[in-house]
Design goal:
The structure holds 2 protein chains of 2 kinds. Chain A contains 8 helices and 12 strands. By secondary structure, chain A is an alpha/beta fold. Classes of the chains: A alpha/beta, B mainly alpha.
Chain lengths: 230, 498
Amino acid sequence: MLTFEGAAFRQGDFTLEADFEIVAGGVTAVIGPSGAGKSTLLHGIAGFVPQVAGRLMWDGRNIAAAPPQDRPVSMLFQDNNLFPHLTVMQNVALALVPKVRPGREVQDRVEDMLARVGLQGLSARKPAGLSGGQQSRVALARALLQDRPVMLMDEPFSALGPALKDEMLDLSVSLAKGRTVVMITHDPADAGRIADAVIGVVPGRALSPVATQTFLTDPPVEMRDYFSPL
Amino acid sequence: MAHRLVSIIPALIVAGLVIGPVAAVLWRGGGFTALSDADADAVAFTVWQAFWSALISVVLAVPVARALARRQFPGRGALIAVMGAPFILPVIVAVLGLVAVFGGRGVINAVLGPLGLPRLDIYGAHGVILAHVFFNLPLAVRLILQGWLSIPSERFQVAASLGAPLFWLLEWPMLKRIVPGAFAVIFVICLGSFAVALTLGGGPRATTVELAIYQAFKFDFDLGKAASLAVVQLALGLCAGLVALLLARGDMLGAGLDRVVQRWDGSRVLDAVWIGLAALFLLAPLGALVVAGVPGLALLPEGIWAATGRSVMIALGAVVLTMALALPLATKAGEAASLLGISVSGLVLGTGIFLIVQPYVRPASVALPVTLLVNVLMSLPFVLRILRTGVDGAKADYGRLGASLGLRGWALWRIAYLPRLRRPMGFSAGLTGALAMGDLGVITLFSRPGQGTLPLAMYELMGRYQMDAAYGAALVLVGTSLALFWVFDRGGRVNADV
């Protein structure tokens, strides 16, 4: 259970408040108009945006003040997920050891994971030699290999075409089974496709999660503007 | 916090290296031997020549920059690249090139003489200004060209379709924004002019404060007077430096000058004339140097190669030390600390260091290390300006990714940041090396005969009127400087995955 207790995150002079629980082991989508604070919420969980009020509980522990590397999260960023000067192998191995020359055992584990995301035989390439979809797979492989209970996704597949995006979402969710996945999307169809619950974000406030079907058919009052055609 | 110490210690070192000598100068010059008339003249001349040098450079740069901004022609990119070269061209080499064109036995006099026209004399106040314009016109062109290219091309399209006056609508506001800063930067550079004044100026009507410091030091060995003058130079530099800092816009690197704004106005012929004149003014001295230098290579005295070796060692040492200090200092606070160095002239620092070491060792025996150190302090502000953009970019792009992977401290730098910095590091290392290689400043205060650097050896050849050998030495010097720059800059580019 990831619990926000009167939490507030501040980025510059923008503040986002959150006071609810995210159920462990499920997939939760974050939806809302641009600028409302979707990224602030995710980056707050990851520890990149400072928490200025309340507590953030995971497993009975308050992680509100923990530095990013000590939090139970791995993250897929919107862009700049891969170091362009490192090979696929080196990029993914960083999930396990902070070295650019990983040992044999680490290399084997990386190859295993690359195979699971469908990237056999590409470990020696650099990101520039991969397609956009392949790059997403590398980033996904690394986030999975980090083996943290919470996986945050800041629209990592937004630059892909619709079919490829759907494929990557399905792959992510199936490989991350058992983890708590929180992902930003601006497409309600994405939420309908993979999410168990949806967090609506209105300017300055993240609303409590609502079951996906309910959210889509009967959105919270605060989100009506977002869904209305005009 | 260990990583804070990593940046605090170099900042303290740099501040100490600047403040120590300045304090020594202030302490020694504290008595303030009242400035003589000659000293007052030097102050007046320094400000006067800097004003005219900056004004002429900027006024000429405007039409050249406009022509470059709106015309596409073969060699345009090369010409703009060449305009970056004076920055790393050793001052004394450029001076010699100008002598070859404008000097007594130069190309222009060879034409004027037979026509019965008055002869040009490059030595004196106008020679100093001429050399400063040679160095700073390209800088002004690049800064102003940047301003022109920062105007979105859509604006020109809108203005053209409205038939609106382009100049008042688009160009005048831009010039008002850019030109004062360009003027101020050039004014500050010329204020600290030493090598140009040393070689082309001198005498009662063309002595800068820096040159007066040198003369007080070298000829009168009047340390009190040198220190007093150093205080004056310090005050001048600090005031002008602050003003320049406030006014200066745009970065000196001038990235992205390769596009052309399409426009539908102006005279092609006039633009071609401006570009042609500017190119001639910049390239003729270099061409003349090559013509005069090749035969001179045979006349080089024995000692020149040893001097070259010493200069290369100083250049390499300066690169290593500058980089070691620059990386941890690549923060806003660090850049501010390093600016201390740019507002203090090399000669003032040299005088201060001389005052400090004089009771303990013979200053001549530390001439080369001091030259190295002063060059490091002089390069740091430029290097930090270049590196900080890269460091900030790397942190913005990969800082969070690194943190989410648990990379910290040295591992974060080694794995994530340093590889991203190869290009700016290569470029700034090349700059540092070339500048140190060509520096003719503090070495003139200290060195023993036959133990100097290549620029000093070249200056000595000029002093003995062995001009042909001096031209030869200039070729060696410019070749080595450019080679140093090229090697480092290239090293940063090869195999760099952007």
